Fold each of these.
Amino acid sequence: MMKITPVVFLLLGIALASPAQHKPRVVKAKRTPVAQHEETNTKLYQQMLPATAKVMFFDSVVVDKHNFMAYLPVSKEIGTLSVNANADMANQMGSYQNEFGDRRILAQGDSAASRLYTQTLVGDQWSKKSVIADFDANTYTHQNYPFLASDGITLYFSASGPESLGKRDIFMSSFDSDKAQWYKPQNCGLPFNSPANDYLLVIDDLDSLGWLVSDRYQPEGKVCIYSFVPTASRQSFDSDGLSDAQLKHYADIRSIKDTWKFGNRKKALARRDALVQRIKAKQQSAVGMAFVVDDNTVITSPSQFRNPQSRQLYKQVVELKAMIAQTEAQLDAARIAYHNGNRGVADNIRRMEQQLPQQLRDLHATELKIRQLELNH
């Protein structure tokens, strides 16, 4: 029989006792900054949900992200919106100039950081740009796409940061003229903001129209322009008795059709269409009309056409010229973006390069038809 020495007993004792004496430690996984941010966003969304604004979105259109400004029917009566030329989408900086042409609010910077600045016209010279220091650059990062309401003191702009739902959110601030400072910006809440990028909010008080630009539910390179009817004061769903699921449906803009019951869509569409026609008429008036029939006849007013059909066809000429100008501008912007390294616009470039020659052929054929009608009348 084998003898067990005291040393062996000692080793066996250590081996048997180890599990009881050294329990394995349970290490909790640390939350990543992304996970913490998503958790914060979820809490912020839940806090905003009860205050979701009741808004009628009467129309929407999906357009290319890099030149969405071209699709906004904004009248110069409420100011001018523009972006810096020769910049890709990541470095695109928006600006607003009021209807009097003597005040600017503009974003400056790049994809890493940007701030809002103001300028005023003194005589015939613009003042030095002054940063809006009241907007904390750490809380409201990537400030961009400003729009100043018709009251001259309410500013909407886009930013990202700890006070946004996800990526970019729309914020609002008012200017205190007595103290010469801006109030702390407030998140515009739901449904104007989302976990996606919400770029621009425009309110046209003259025509009672509004536009929201967002890339929610959109593929890369696209944004949706939502047309809505602004209200004098924020309307809520407090008295509607909605469940959280029903409220989220409106907060997330899951269906614009479901919001049509909140207003008169037909009248909103009519106001929008009238605005578009008014803008076109002003553009045409600024350019002037000079339609050459032959060496001896130049039409300078639609009323000068002798054939009624010519007048109808000339409306098509105006529309085709506007389409061609828009396509050329979009094509130039896309080519610049491609040159700056944005290869995602290649398909758009090819599509527009096919569209443009056809639009020019349609224009030439329509003008030729008008000349034939006038010469044979």
Amino acid sequence: MLAAALGHRLSRFFAGRIEWFRVGAWDFATLTEMLALRFGTARGESSLERVGTLRQFFARTGPRLVVLDNHEDDRATARLLDAFRESPVTFVVTARRCLLAGVLVFPVTAPLATLGQSAFPRVKVLTRKLRFSPLALDIADSLVLSRAVSVKALGDFLEARGVSRVVAVEHEDDLPEVALLVEWAWQRLSPESRRMLVVLSHVEGDHMDAASLATLAKVSGNAARALAPLERWHLVQEPVAGRYTLHAVVRHAVRRRKSFDPARFYQHYVSLLEREPERLLLEQTHLFAAMDHAHRTGSLSDMLRVEALLRDMDG
């Protein structure tokens, strides 16, 4: 939201030359492909060629603002920013942590948390127990609001599972207080709802529509019924009407429970876009995720299928 507000405030300064990219954990080759496709520059045979034509484009078109949202791969992002450090481009990178040198870091914290207050009065007594985490408090509040559990029972569950213990975590997405709330919900979800969470925890593209989610989760019945508790308990987010995703912390908590074959995402979205090319813009991040999958596996046939779709976007 802050990046969007910044873009709005600086729109006149950059004469409207403002671009937004969702980047995630993709490699350097995928990132340069995204830029080349968006700006209509030559994609070439290599990342080096793409960088060269992009530099020329930036030099020719003047200052612009580029937002790289949801940065996850430090090496790929560092390489990208360094490649264009001499170009008239201001990059804004959003992330919950930054392990990059040569950039300015502006930490953002929830304002009430800094004052020791809670934005969720219904579960106020759990505020310290949940480490003032807005995400954990939001999920806990929704569990109590739905009358699925009382505040006391939820607090007792968290204590019994060791929420107050001091432990080492794997990384910034590994928050035990959120993982314990996910565990509470997981025990009470149907198999169909669980499978939907697993799919959302492994997908590398952005938000998914309910139809794709149901297909990949093998929910043959009423998808809305399987989604209902996930929405009611705020385990899923709906950034666009009818399309779903997970917060990265919830994603990590679910992902540790079940694996999922990434080739299934590739097959689903590439086949979908081959049948319905008019959905390319809507499903663009899934296409880039398919490209990244093809790069990782080194499958020539997979690369050629993605390349055919990219040509349609290029045209």
Amino acid sequence: MNTFTATQERMRALDARITARPDRFRVLTGERPTGRLHLGHYFGTISERVTLQARGVETFLVLADYQAITDRDTADNVSINVHEAVLDYLAAGLDPASTTIFTHSSVPALNQLLLPFLSLVSEAELHRNPTVKAELAASGRALSGLMLTYPVHQAADILFCKGNLVPVGKDNLPHVELTRTIARRFNDRYDDVFPEPESLVTASPEVPGVDGRKMSKSYGNAIALGMTADETAAVIRRAQTDSDRHITFDPVGRPGIAALLTTAALCAGTTPELIAEQIGSRGAAELKRVATDTINDYFAAHRRRRAELARDRSAVMDVLQAGVERANAVAETTLDEVRSAMGMHYTLT
């Protein structure tokens, strides 16, 4: 049995267990608030979180603001990005009554897990992590200590709340595997405190940006969830296409055309090939019109809810405050267990 087939079978079995007993699972997921959330976030992670919430799975959602300072360029506007992200979460249907939304920097006990966790991993293991390797290749300079230990930060994020289910794409499986290793080593060395979390490998589509590359804030090719219909239209008008009027789906030969077809198809619930066939020889202008209308129609309700929420800034702050209080209570309990397990629980008798 090949790896792909084995993963599919494991995911089917895991899905059945979630359906049967959603109360046995706790999810940890989140983002680094380095910019506005975009369509890639929505189709890649946010919609999956809404689905898990509807299935009755408790979710902790971290806005990892401390981890934003690992960005090699800038960590400007973190507080604005956090506020904007919460608006998008709420507009998408995440309910703070069942999804705990909090900021990393506001939970001190979570970060105290880093020291014992760092003692359980080697430098070589950290260097093998794909995110660390990619950052080193992209930056062309020595890694900061924060970036090198990024995988352990993620382990602390997951384990502080005893998360036992982590939705990931297949490229992020090494992060969960290192978290499992840390949990196992801690339990073996001290006492059974942490679960070994399972990866929920999602089949989330990769949403291309308007230039055909992966949609990314850093590439400047993204359609942000907070954009208006007119702003979305403007981004799509600037998309690079080609002079061939007959529209075909060819991601390699026609990346700009393929990107618009893919995004339109996601929003329309169909295939890029079918949209290309429907447009035929009416050219890139018609494709851009179709893509604009389809995206704007799909996100119209999201944008209405978002605009309503944005009128009351206190609504976002109330959600964050409640989430931070909940996360702190959970983190303090876990840290207390860790101290006891390590023989570092000092009380006067």
Amino acid sequence: MASKIWKALTPSFRTRLVRVTQPKFTVSVAAVVTNPEGKVLLLKHVLRPAADWGIPGGFMEADEQPHDAIRRELLEETGLELQEVNMLRVRTMARHIEILFRARANGEGEVRSREITKLGWYDPEDMPKGTAGIQKHLIEEILRGEV
């Protein structure tokens, strides 16, 4: 009986019904980006006051594919174009979904966003003070191929 009622509803009404009854969440992309020398790109983020240095990333836009989102974020924030973009994992944290990538980039990059105050390429063993421990651990795992 419920399936007959569901099928009788218009597609737009079904969509509205699902959106009203289902929990909302955000989705972001992030990447461990390395250069030809094996250094890791870290950005000093304005919006991360406790541990301001971290890997690049940001929120996805509606109708955007994850690979396109990480490429857009890096281009907007640093001017860098990514190569060899590979999705590593998807994880949930409460009402947030994070899609993690590994990628390569050539060039130095430059700060192009008000959300970023500095950028730099760092040896994995010598990341800047203010890099969260969880970010350091994640970078190390990815570079070892464990993620």
